[in-house]
Design goal:
about 110 residues, mainly alpha, two-stranded antiparallel sheet, 4 helices, about 5% strand
């Protein structure tokens, strides 16, 4: 295994999945529209039920990205390279973003 080849694989993958490459300020996860439609079609669901549905919708298009020169590392293929758990950069942040106003309504500061 060559570390130089692995580095190039990772650079190529993450460059194509970077926030800027995906549209910068205009970026939203392609799954958010699907999740919004689901929530609109099921208006009585609790946040817990929406979160469960969210995980099902994320799982459907999930295709692991395997790096041929790394036996220990893979990616989900669903997130922006810089996401690292940032709610606005991944499909997993949909419910947080959807309900963010509730927190702000309770405590604007």
């Amino acid at each position: 295994m060559s570390i130089a080849i692995l580095r190039q694989e990772l650079r190529t993958y993450y460059a194509g999945r970077s926030y800027q490459a995906l549209g910068g300020e205009q970026f939203t996860s392609p799954l958010w529209e699907l999740m919004d439609a689901y929530a609109a079609a099921h208006p009585g669901l609790t946040a817990v039920q929406l979160k469960a549905a969210q995980y099902e919708m994320i799982a459907a298009p999930f295709q692991p990205v395997l790096f041929p020169h790394s036996p220990f590392f893979s990616e989900m293929g669903l997130t922006v390279a810089e996401s690292d758990g940032i709610p606005f950069l991944s499909a997993g942040g949909w419910l947080f973003k959807r309900n963010q106003h509730l927190f702000q309504d309770q405590n604007p500061a």
